[in-house]
What we know:
2 copies of one chain form a homodimer. The first copy, chain A, is of the alpha/beta class. The first copy, chain A, has helices at 17-27, 58-64, 79-86, 101-104, 109-115, 140-147, 167-190, 201-208, 210-219, 254-263, 278-283, 285-297, 301-310, 321-325, 328-333, 375-381, 386-394, and strands spanning 8-11, 31-36, 68-71, 92-95, 120-125, 195-200, 237-242, 245-250, 315-317, 336-340, 348-351, 355-357, 365-367. The first copy, chain A, folds into 2 domains: 8-208 and 332-394, Rossmann fold (3-Layer(aba) Sandwich); 237-318, 2-Layer Sandwich (formyl-coa transferase, domain 3), CATH 3.30.1540.10. In chain A, the strands form 3 sheets. Chain A has a 6-stranded parallel beta sheet with strand order 3-2-1-4-5-6, with helices on both faces. A 3-stranded antiparallel beta sheet of chain A has the order 7-8-9, covered by helices on one side. At the A-B interface, helix 2, helix 6, helix 7, strand 6 and helix 8 of A face helix 2, helix 6, helix 7, strand 6 and helix 8 of B.
Amino acid sequence: MRPLDNITVLDLSHAVAGPHCTYHLGLMGADIIKVERPVLGDDLRHYTEHAGLKTLSAPFIAYNTGKRSITLDLTKPAAREILARLMPRADVMVENFRPGVAKRLGLDYDSAKQWNPRIIYCSISGFGQTGVMRDWPAYDHIIQSISGVMMMNGSDGEPPLKVGLPLADVFSGYVAAFAIVSALLQRERSGGDGQYIDVGMLDALMIMMNAGIVTYRLSGEPPRRTGNLGFRLVATSSVYKTRDGYLGIGANHQPQIEALFRIIGRPDLLVDPRFADHAARMKHNEALRDLLADLFATRSAEELEPKLAEAKVPAGKVRTLAETVDHPHIRERDLFVTSSVPGLRQTVPIVGAGFRFQHDGPKRNGAVATIGEHTDSVLREVGFSSDDVAAFRAAGTI
Amino acid sequence: MRPLDNITVLDLSHAVAGPHCTYHLGLMGADIIKVERPVLGDDLRHYTEHAGLKTLSAPFIAYNTGKRSITLDLTKPAAREILARLMPRADVMVENFRPGVAKRLGLDYDSAKQWNPRIIYCSISGFGQTGVMRDWPAYDHIIQSISGVMMMNGSDGEPPLKVGLPLADVFSGYVAAFAIVSALLQRERSGGDGQYIDVGMLDALMIMMNAGIVTYRLSGEPPRRTGNLGFRLVATSSVYKTRDGYLGIGANHQPQIEALFRIIGRPDLLVDPRFADHAARMKHNEALRDLLADLFATRSAEELEPKLAEAKVPAGKVRTLAETVDHPHIRERDLFVTSSVPGLRQTVPIVGAGFRFQHDGPKRNGAVATIGEHTDSVLREVGFSSDDVAAFRAAGTI
């Protein structure tokens, strides 16, 4: 069995962080019941349009494949009749309303516990459920602004720069998934009650900054912005322009550096007193950088990449996302699962779990639900009659 | 009980990704037995030196607090006598040797299974255990080069830019932690055998790029590099220079934009036909950007931030990491756990789990072990006598 087979997740979240969390729970086997407001559904459906798809943006497909969708107007009193039947069957509930909204809707953890004391209830918000910023609204780039990450990305002296991925959104959703699976294991092993989990996007991003924070605590100085330099800050570990694109190289240790100098046709550098050992190279780091920049400008990244890798010098041609996803290595890694998208004849490959199990591993395929596609079937599963469903629909509750 | 109380992790990993993984398992309650080579220990100990600490770099502290350390020379035949006693007691084993090395050492999954069929064995490597790049060496910035992320970070027309965090290292370690906890839950629920988990840093980074990949698949175009623009690519959702630093603003929807224009003292823009609604603003996006840039240049980020947040316009002053960690909100969120560091009188605050549980949550404090600090006690726990330990030490096995 998969890790989360027969686990039901009631997903009241929208946008990115919450749906990204439950997408990964779904890959591990959970049944994700995505609750959307009637008519419009999740806002993310209406983001940029491609391939003529209405209400199915690319990010929505990426984060919502494999879920069932039901509509429910949580502001209607009759919504509670439906929740009263869904909650007891759910193992996990996820929401990413602004703090306080779930309580106003009568959906906070204290209410959920009345319906189901074993429920694991996870709230995801910008700043968490406590603290002076708790009520502040947030988007990914606002969290990035406040977190310090924009002052680590890029180079010293430059303006702040956002990380070119929705880092706070995507990572906080993944942190929530880790917390939820941990809580499920805790419940399973202790035989006890459920759990309440408070995930803040800003808090989660701090995980990524731990090494920088400790550096600051020990040295009194925030970490330098180091552009394209590798972790060791040496000129032999950086990114250089070649005649056919950019090449990342990572020669940190003496044997790697010897191999590098040999492969680029400059074994003489090994006996140049400026570059012969680590201490000398650190002293002449800028001279070495300029020398390497001139040298790589006349060479081919395409040719050097496999030669360096073969000689155990870490190296990688800088690729666009399009070049990467079609690379033979990525194809062999079998990273993608297929998404059946209403309105498209062909399935779309989307990134799956990002790791492999030897047995009973992550799900392979899924479909994107239309808004409320599973409302009727889910409501029938929890015991409502077709007359009940029709009445809910007539009243605008679903 | 905590989720991983009484779970033992045999951690043969070094550098960043593996130790970051087991750090988070330790926070959830697991006993982490870190295996280091005799004398030198984990390479990361010897990274940059601060506060006069030898063999205890800041990143090492960040990722290794709370673990026990034993020394073991895995190339010595007698190491197998020790592993034969440790393996049966371990629930999880983590390694991040290059693919093939564990097998050469007689430590691959097939060997581990002989000792303990219930073990969950996780390998972390640059490119995973299969595929044409499997044997290529990798560091964080090499994975970033190859993944496409350097061509998403920054702005169109600029050279590739590394994300200013060890994103591939840190995130792949976190993915491994998610995979391991999932496999522990799977083992607990199925009552079955263990699992083998293959985590590749490049694979893991693809999780972060899923929305961009689907955009590319649907549109045929890789996602644009958008600098500091927010997700919606509108001028009212970006980062602007003010007279006291930079300010991120995120006004995407009409009510947010109306509040923004009012608070910056330009309600007239609401009736300017160029900026009155979304379609008009998109048409005049650059004019609006220039107008906002001029306007913010004379205003104070410090003053505007709380006013905008109060009016439900997402906004955040761009902070350095040093400003963030000392912010009252972060202090109230109680994100940090303390690390007792040998050689320092005061404990060092390090980032903990990054989320909160209502009960039985992540561990609060820990210490950093010296190299092999727990060799004797761990060996005694698994039944070796003090004479045995002395003999292993004399032979250089530990």
